[in-house]
Design goal:
By secondary structure, this protein is mainly α. It folds into 2 domains: about 120 residues, no CATH class; about 280 residues, Son of Sevenless (SoS) protein, Chain S, domain 2 (Orthogonal Bundle). The chain is about 55% helix and about 0% strand. It contains 27 helices and 2 strands. Helix 6 runs parallel beside helix 8, helix 11 packs across helix 16 and helix 16 packs parallel to helix 26. It is elongated, with a radius of gyration of 27 Å. About 15% of the residues have low confidence. InterPro entries: Ras-like_GEF, Ras_GEF_dom_sf, RASGEF_cat_dom, RASGEF_cat_dom_sf. GO terms for molecular function: guanyl-nucleotide exchange factor activity. It comes from Mucor circinelloides f. lusitanicus. This is Ras guanine nucleotide exchange factor domain-containing protein. One of its GO terms (biological process) is Ras protein signal transduction.
């Protein structure tokens, strides 16, 4: 808490600043002068408003003041219109303005966004406010307004655009025959599928058919595990295994891994990470935080996390970390373990050069896991390698000292493309969310809390564009995705097997005394 106070100062005090009413916040959104000084206010507001306002309430306020952010809201947060109340009201608004010629451009820009299939479910209902079921007041408003239908027909719209039953746990593209189709290697539970990736220019392994392979993961280390992550991780375990003995598989993995260059592997790890990062939307950060904390039965949490890119990124981070450990400890010969560890250190250097801090941290987490740290013979041999000093520099860069101050400083100096270490930024959001209440003592909105959380999210989102220009290599991606990952218990048992514990000096002395008797 001391460190966070240093970072954010008096923002953690409930007495900081002046509380705002819902009307005050909306007025700021529509203020040209305020938007010039705070360019992030609109995306931040759209990310958080459901913590203190219902979608219908926002619609009504915006209609009363003239629309300004409808286009952005409708384009990126269509799920807010899951309930019919907000949809009906915005259609009424379009009906009214369609009668005025000078408002036609507004009507033309919003109409395609409004007259479309309603969202199938609302992933934010587990943490945000929802519209009331009863919409009699809206019908009465229509009758009392002496409203004459213009371009749009509200009754026709309502009749033909009823919400479909929610099916959050199934993909929108899933059909009854999809399970019959063979799948190739996937990352993050199928979020990143390499079926349609271009053919590789270089071959690092013999071709083989993959029937169903999903990158496995573990829940220890890296980001904080949650129920959703554990359930998601359990679905990642690969069902496909090459029919090889452990020794043959280890030898095969070693040859493929060592044949690829350090930069090539770093490129492919960055390609995967960039694909995941590009899918993350601002609200997915807060769904990951608030959905799990407010859900009682777990069902709402699973609905919001089933297709959450942040949750998938957490699982992928843990997978890469576990992959590093598995690759090292499955080599029974010391010289091979040293070579693999040295190569991962070189890959870490290449990842830093790519500004891929998330994969870099995953590699560091694997190398510094308990199962690898205890390999004294392996680590002592690596200490003499040239890359070791560079690796030590990376450890200092990503050190947890002073709340990752070295990393934060480096990130500020980093330009796009880049991939921040999302774990620490996610923790910042958790700390900000828990440090302040949503409302102040006088009932006004604690806007500074949401603004700070929004600035944290926007600071990571700015690294999305421009993106990386990396060509995916299907052979290498398949090799990584299809890797068999040992559990933490299996990792530690294998670690002890390849480098057994040494008897302590005190035990040796007692044994010597016993033999002399």
């Amino acid at each position: 808490m001391f460190i966070l106070n240093q970072l954010f100062g008096s923002y953690f005090s409930d007495s900081f600043g002046i509380g705002l009413t819902s009307e005050d916040v909306v007025d700021r959104l529509l203020s040209i002068e305020y938007n010039k000084t705070d360019e992030n206010i609109i995306p931040i507001f759209l990310t958080f408003f459901r913590k203190f306002m219902k979608p219908y309430e926002l619609v009504k306020m915006l209609v009363d003041r003239i629309h300004s952010i409808f286009s952005l809201w409708l384009s990126h947060y269509w799920n807010d219109f899951y309930g019919p109340h907000a949809r009906k009201h915005i259609i009424l608004f379009l009906d009214r303005i369609s009668k005025y010629e000078y408002l036609t451009p507004i009507c033309d820009s919003l109409a395609p966004l409004v007259v479309r299939e309603p969202p199938s479910y609302d992933p934010d209902k587990s943490w945000g406010l929802v519209d009331d079921e009863d919409d009699n007041d809206l019908e009465n408003e229509k009758k009392d307004s002496a409203y004459a239908s213009g371009t749009f027909s509200v009754s026709s719209y309502i009749q033909h655009h009823q919400p479909t039953p929610p099916s959050p746990l199934s993909s929108p593209t899933t059909n009854e025959h999809s399970c019959e189709l063979p799948r190739r290697a996937e990352f993050a539970g199928g979020l990143i599928n390499i079926d349609n990736v271009a053919k590789p220019k270089h071959h690092y392994a013999p071709s083989f058919k993959i029937t169903a392979s999903i990158a496995s993961t573990r829940t220890g280390g890296g980001w904080t595990s949650s129920l959703g992550t554990q359930l998601l991780a359990s679905s990642f375990i690969s069902s496909f295994r090459q029919h090889r003995s452990d020794k043959d598989q280890s030898s095969y993995n070693y040859k493929v891994f060592m044949k690829a260059t350090d930069v090539t592997i770093a490129d492919q790890l960055t390609w995967i990470e960039a694909e995941l990062f590009s899918r993350i939307k601002p609200r997915e950060f807060i769904r990951n935080i608030w959905s799990s904390s407010v859900s009682n039965d777990g069902s709402s949490f699973m609905e919001s996390s089933s297709n959450n890119a942040v949750t998938a990124s957490i699982a992928h981070f843990n997978f890469i970390s576990a992959w590093v450990v598995t690759m090292i400890i499955t080599q029974t010969r010391l010289n091979k373990r040293v070579s693999v560890l040295e190569k991962f250190m070189s890959i870490a250097v290449a990842l830093r050069n790519h500004n891929n801090y998330n994969s870099l941290m995953a590699i560091l987490a694997g190398i510094n896991s308990a199962s690898v740290l205890r390999l004294k013979q392996t680590r002592q041999a690596v200490c003499t390698k040239k890359v070791f000093k560079q690796f030590q520099s990376l450890e200092r860069l990503m050190s947890t000292d002073k709340s990752f101050s070295s990393y934060r400083m480096a990130l500020k100096a980093t330009g796009a493309p880049g991939i921040p270490y999302l774990g620490i930024h996610n923790q910042d959001l958790v700390s900000l969310a828990e440090a302040n209440k949503d409302f102040r003592a006088d009932g006004t909105i604690h806007w500074e809390k949401f603004r700070l959380m929004g600035e944290t999210i926007m600071a990571t989102m700015k690294f999305k564009y421009p993106g990386y220009s990396i060509e995916p290599d299907t052979q290498l991606l398949t090799f990584i995705a299809d890797s068999h990952i040992l559990s933490e218990d299996e990792q530690y048992k294998r670690s002890i097997l390849i480098e057994p514990r040494l008897a302590s000096s005190s035990t040796n002395r007692i044994r010597d005394l016993w033999l002399r008797m």
